[in-house]
Specification:
By secondary structure, the protein is mainly alpha-helical. The chain has helices spanning about 5-20, 25-45, 50-60. The protein is flat.
């Protein structure tokens, strides 16, 4: 499915959620759609989360500290 068709279907689904529900329902549908889109990108291999996970662990395990100076007068 190309991006135009995906955007059209997404817009229709969000519109239906707004018509038959409330604005909050539409936001929940949009949030779940964004989460599903992100999961699909990871499963397709278009988004690499392994780099984010290992980079975060490496930073914590080396004991590096921030270069910020403490707030004071």
């Amino acid at each position: 499915m190309n991006r135009t068709a995906l955007a059209t279907v997404t817009g229709l689904i969000l519109g239906l959620a707004l018509v038959f529900g409330s604005f909050g329902d539409m936001l929940i549908v949009a949030l779940l759609g964004a989460i599903g889109y992100g999961i699909a990108k990871v499963l397709d291999g278009d988004l690499d989360v392994q780099g984010w996970l290992t980079r975060g662990r490496g930073r914590m395990s080396t004991g590096q500290t921030s270069n910020r100076s403490p707030a004071g007068p």
